[in-house]
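Preliminary data (for renewal application), uridine-5'-diphosphate complex.
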Amino acid sequence: MERPRYKRILLKISGEVLTGEKGYGIDPEVILKIAQEIKEVVGLGVEMAIVIGGGNIFRGMAASSKGMDRASADYMGMLATVLNGLALQDALEKIGVFTRVQTAIEMREVAEPYIRRKAIRHLEKGRVVIFAAGTGNPFFTTDTTASLRAMEIGAEVILKATKVDGIYESDPLINAKAKKFDELTYFDVLKKQLKVMDATAISLCMDHRIPTIVFNLKKKGNIKRTVLGEKVGTKVR
Ligand code: UDP
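Predicted structure:
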């Protein structure tokens, strides 16, 4: 019998892992694969909440650098995360995983509003809760949302799913010789200015002592391996 190391986790999925090879938008095949991996982990009895990003569709900062008002652009970015959240919910429910989407910006016709106690209740009932629309505030990121929600629901760890194997000293997609770290402290990440999460997300995790494991979602079985306590990716504590 496989024994998970954690009872409740928060999985952060950045938008870019949903694109497949296209580099933009949502690839239903990729989403289905992710959903299947989530199903396996939920099957172990682990309670899972997910914070979904939106960078595959819209990034506020990129749009504002081209002249758009930053706050308006950020609201568009938050709406992009709702599109991803609904796509993930659809894929999960198709394979029999009960799911609720909660949004930080109210849109009752498509999803529940974010209510902390209700989210916890869903988790206790074995439902996967997808948090969409970020924090509901411009000038933040979905990484910060992940730190915030992880603390609110009492998750033991944040699993940050990316396209690379962990945290490297420099971008491994540019520098093939870049060294990968197995373990780091949040302070190291700040000091070395490693581009993993923004400083707001890091300081929240650091202050509240919640670890983050950064790992590659493209490698099959990685979410489960991480949950079972195998050494995967880079652990930041
Ligand atoms: N965003 C925001 N407030 C939040 C979370 C997200 O304004 O609390 C906006 C921001 O514009 C961001 C976009 O939503 O660029 C998409 O989120 P993010 O870039 O974090 O997604 P990811 O990189 O994980 O795909």
